Amino acid sequence: MNTHPYLRAYLAGAFLPTLVMPLMLTAFIVLRIVLEWPVPIEQAMIFPMAIVPSLFGLWNMLWLASHVRTGFPIGLQGAVLPVLMAPAGGLVACTLGVLRLEPHGLVWFQAVHFSYTLIAVGWLAAIAGYYLVWKYLVGFLNRALGIA
Predict the structure, then answer these.
(1) Whole-angstrom Cα distance, residue 55 to residue 8?
(2) Fewer Cβ within 10 Å of end Cβ, the chain: N or C?
């Protein structure tokens, strides 16, 4: 009997962002409508809501396919993901005019300025957060589905 391990890996990887992304969208819409924040953040959430769950699922499938040969821990596999996602997201945002590079930082929606120092700290926090999420949550889901 074929147990479809790659399908289970995809579902385990896509599970968490599928739950979290709509909650983030709700929080951002409340921020925009209730607090009347002038930045159209919900427009910036559409693309990540479409791509991130699929990317997590595919990334977990890649881990499953390569883990036997490489022995790469799932936490480190997850920590690599923001290293790939952040530059790709920044490139898409700059191309669409949502993000602008300036000498002292980034300007988002021509309204919010982020210094490069803040971005570096946030990026390191994201890498640490992804490591923990992948090690404990996605790893737990993989074990629960019998693929780890």
Answers:
(1) 14
(2) N
**Alpha-helical segments (H) within 34-115:** 41-70, 74-95
**Total domains present in the chain:** 1
Each residue's pLDDT tens digit, 86-110: 898 889 888 888 889 899 998 888 8
Q: Nearest 5 degrees, angle CA 53-CA 134-CA 84?
A: 60
Q: Which two tokens stand for residue 19?
A: 């739950």
Distance between start and end Cα atoms, the chain: 19
Share of the chain above pLDDT 70, in %: 95
> Residue 29 is inside which H or E element, if any?
helix 5-33
Question: Largest Cα–Cα distance of the chain, in whole Å?
Answer: 59
Q: Could you count the other beta carbons within 10 Å of the beta carbon of residue 10?
A: 20
- The answer to pTM > 0.70 is yes
Q: Grade residue 42 by pLDDT with cuts at 50, 70 and 90.
A: low
- Over residues 109-121, the pLDDT tens digits come to 887 888 999 999 9
- Domain interval for residue 11: 5-144
Structure-token match 């009997």, residue found = 1
